[in-house]
Design a protein that fits this description.
Elements: E1 7-10, H1 21-26, E2 29-32, H2 40-53, E3 57-59, E4 65-66, H3 69-82, E5 88-97, E6 100-103, E7 117-118, E8 133-135, H4 136-141, H5 154-164, E9 168-178, H6 191-207, H7 211-232, H8 236-249
Helix pairs in contact: 6-8, 7-8
Length: 250
């Protein structure tokens, strides 16, 4: 698989980025933004450009991922096989952070590490969007990338939307290294960012979660009420979690 076009959306542009020799060598379309608009606007601009150009697949990345030629080749090999199924909406890499597999979430249901394959229909297909190959027509059918998830929750929205539509999820043997910028219960995140995460989770809870997932989410919120004030030394997270419990409960 040879990428047909490359779009780079820069939410933190620095002087000289537009004239970088690297950009010239990549023949990339570069679009800087004066403000950090999150990942969703950039993905949507790429989707529209791909629609106009007749490009059928998108390959999503964000700035926290690190990959090598072996990853590119591995994903291309998986695409050649798995994309033949018209019901395959995406091909996911196996994403590792600090030595641990963090995506897809359905670790027990993954194909063997040495084989590309599909997740079972009953498996939890939620995954990090960085490194994901995505069939553009599937997102077209959703009306584009949902701008309500401009910063957080876009990946889970995509995966849960695919589940509702009965789509198949491919998983490649390719491995991507990704630095998680947010880990809701173990890593530090600002109060403002955490509230953004909660807002995204609330939409997913209301529109996509099954009854079992809702019970599990409520249990996670209660766990966060205890864990986060102790770990982050601030009760602002506790008040945010309690407010979230109230909003989703009523």
């Amino acid at each position: 698989m040879v990428p047909e076009a490359l779009w780079i959306f820069d939410n933190e542009p620095a002087p000289g980025n537009e004239t970088s020799p690297m950009l010239a060598s990549l023949e990339a379309t570069y679009e800087p933004s004066a403000t950090n608009r999150g990942i969703c606007p950039g993905y949507e601009r790429a989707r529209l450009a791909a629609l106009h150009a007749g490009i059928e697949w998108l390959w999503l990345f964000d700035q926290d991922s690190d990959f090598d030629p072996a990853f590119m080749l591995g994903m291309g090999k998986a695409w050649e096989v798995l994309a033949r199924d018209a019901a395959c909406w995406a091909i996911l890499p196996r994403v590792f952070s600090e030595g641990s597999l963090v995506s897809p979430l359905a670790r027990a249901a993954l194909p063997p590490a040495e084989r590309d394959g599909y997740l079972p229909a009953s498996a939890d297909a939620r995954a990090i969007n960085s490194g994901m190959m995505l069939r553009r027509r599937f997102v077209d059918g959703l009306g584009g990338f949902d701008q309500r998830f401009w910063l957080d929750g876009l990946d889970h929205w995509l995966c849960l939307s695919a589940r509702s539509a009965g789509q198949r999820t491919g998983v490649a043997t390719a491995v991507l290294q990704h630095a998680l910028s947010v880990t809701a219960t173990t890593g530090f995140v600002s109060v403002a960012r955490y509230r953004s995460i909660l807002a995204a989770e609330r939409l997913l809870f209301q529109e996509h979660y099954t009854s079992g997932e809702r019970v599990h989410y409520l249990a996670r919120l209660l766990y966060r009420c205890v864990k986060q004030p102790l770990r982050w030394k601030s009760f602002a997270y506790l008040s945010s979690n309690l407010a979230q419990l109230w909003r989703v409960w009523v």
